[in-house]
Design a protein that fits this description.
- Helix 2 packs antiparallel against helix 9 and helix 13 runs parallel beside helix 15 (347-364).
- The two termini are 34 Å apart.
- The protein is globular and about 60 Å long.
- Helix content is 83%, strand content 0%.
- The protein contains 19 helices and no strands.
- It has three domains: 1-179, MFS general substrate transporter like domains (Growth Hormone, Chain: A, Up-down Bundle), CATH 1.20.1250; 191-243; 250-460, MFS general substrate transporter like domains (Growth Hormone, Chain: A), CATH 1.20.1250.
- The longest helix is centred in the last third of the chain and has 34 residues, at 381-414.
- It is mainly alpha-helical.
């Protein structure tokens, strides 16, 4: 149980940082004079780096030792947090957030490997993974409130201070409690594939964010888009030839796996946009304090926390289709209400929209990993789950980039409120929810499940 507690501390750090920072964005904007595009990068510098390094960090840990990489990750994350708290400008804050992402990438996949290695009994392992998943829900529930309270009481820098003592305590406990382990046959590293993946996601995110600020026809945006296109073409070509690729492209012949990947991107695009726009709206348009704004979003987090275990039970008994359809409708329905958002929207309407959105997100998240690993060979299930986790982070990055850029462009053009500028963004969230529904209906048929069985047979 001590090992599980340490691993849960790591997921709490990484997951909390995805929600706690959003609450402080308006305060960071006022204190550092950051533009809206710089606020987008404050979020995306962390998630982009985290997304692109997850699989690599897991592979390195399998090769040189999971305990060692886990401790290094905790150290980098703590150091990045301390530097974030001292950042003198938006540019430095963005750079230090990227360092946090490097450290965070060494925590989640490595902690899961440690859990799988320590808990050898299947029942105990399932219970441990259930506790691990519950911590993610808790972080979403307490993140906005804790972030708001800290920002109100001690300023935005305090949201990074909290990571340092927790990280240092975890390092000491790792040294004393966690056993070292390595894979019997670690996968080969794919540095070229890794670099191409990073270049693709970073330049794509840059093009989207800067397109809303500098203009879609600007030279840097066009150049970034061209580099992103070249990187993705090069990545596909590389992964087809690599003896042990970063991502085995044969996985995508499985309709459930492809559906889970696209579902994760769609659902978390909606979540990334929701968290960014909602916190800006509540504090800028409505003039709420950070802690008051955090309390407004508590129903969303609470419904997500309640719905997640219910969704898991439904998946176990009846499959992924029902929770995915209900989840997609919840994301679309909550976002649809917000397409009519104004600075004076009734509080009851806001809470209804947030609750429906939270219910949808809670239902859609648990089936993603289950669908991704279904039909995969046992020795490939970890990589499949890592791809699903990466897809979630890619979705958050794209949601912040795309929907944030729409808000920037609309506000610059009209000079109005966050609420008015956000309407096109909420329609994108509606489309993301409906995409989840469509993917659920396509990827859970018997014909689709047969494609997963064929991939398993071919990989055996």
């Amino acid at each position: 149980m001590q090992v599980l507690a340490i691993c849960c501390m790591s997921i709490l750090l990484v997951s909390l940082d995805n929600t706690i920072v959003n609450v402080a964005l308006p305060t960071i904007q006022r204190d550092l004079g950051a533009s809206l595009s710089q606020l987008q990068w404050t979020v995306d510098a962390y998630t982009v780096v985290l997304a692109t390094l997850l699989i690599l960090s897991g592979s390195i840990a399998d090769r040189i030792g999971r305990k060692r990489v886990f401790a290094i990750g905790l150290g980098l994350f703590s150091a990045g947090s301390l530097l974030c708290s001292a950042a003198p400008s938006p540019g430095w804050l963005i750079a230090f957030r990227a360092l946090q992402g490097v450290g965070g990438s060494m925590l989640n996949p490595v902690a899961m490997s440690i859990i799988r290695n320590v808990f050898t009994d299947p029942r105990e392992r399932a219970q441990a993974i259930g506790v691990w998943g519950g911590v993610v829900g808790i972080s979403m529930a307490i993140g906005p409130v804790v972030g708001g309270a800290l920002t109100d009481a001690a300023g935005w820098r305090s949201i990074f201070w909290i990571n340092v003592p927790i990280g240092l305590l975890a390092i000491v406990l790792v040294a004393r409690v966690v056993p070292e382990s390595r894979a019997a046959r670690p996968r080969r590293l794919d540095p070229l594939g890794q670099v191409l993946a990073m270049v693709f996601l970073a330049t794509l995110t840059y093009a989207i964010i800067e397109g809303g600020d500098a203009g879609w026809s600007s030279t840097q945006v066009k150049a970034s888009a061209i580099i992103a296109a070249a990187a993705v073409v090069g990545f596909v070509a590389r992964e087809r030839r690599a003896p042990e690729p970063l991502i085995d492209l044969r996985f995508f012949r499985s309709v459930p796996f492809t559906g889970a990947t696209l579902t994760a991107i769609a659902a978390f695009t909606a979540l990334g946009g929701f968290l960014l726009v909602t916190n800006l709206y509540l504090q800028i348009d409505r003039g709420l304090s950070p802690v008051h704004g955090g309390l407004y979003t508590l129903p969303m987090a609470a419904l997500a926390f309640v719905a997640a275990p219910l969704s898991g039970r439904i998946v176990g008994r009846h499959g992924a289709r029902v929770p995915l359809v209900v989840g997609g409708l919840g994301l679309a329905g909550g976002s649809l209400i917000l397409t009519q958002l104004t600075p004076t929207t009734a509080t009851a309407d806001l809470l209804l929209a947030y609750s429906v959105f939270g219910l949808g997100f809670g239902m859609v998240n648990p089936p993603i990993t289950n669908a991704a690993v279904s039909g995969m060979p046992a020795d490939q299930a970890g990589v499949a789950a890592a791809v699903a986790s990466t897809s979630r982070l890619v979705g958050i990055s794209l949601g912040v980039a795309i929907i944030g850029s729409i808000v920037v462009s609309s506000r610059d053009a009209g000079g109005g409120s966050i609420a008015a500028a956000s309407h096109p963004g909420w329609w994108i969230c509606v489309a993301c929810g409906l995409a989840v529904v469509a993917l659920a209906l396509v990827s859970t048929t018997e014909r689709a499940l047969n494609t997963a069985r064929l991939v398993e047979a071919a990989s055996a």
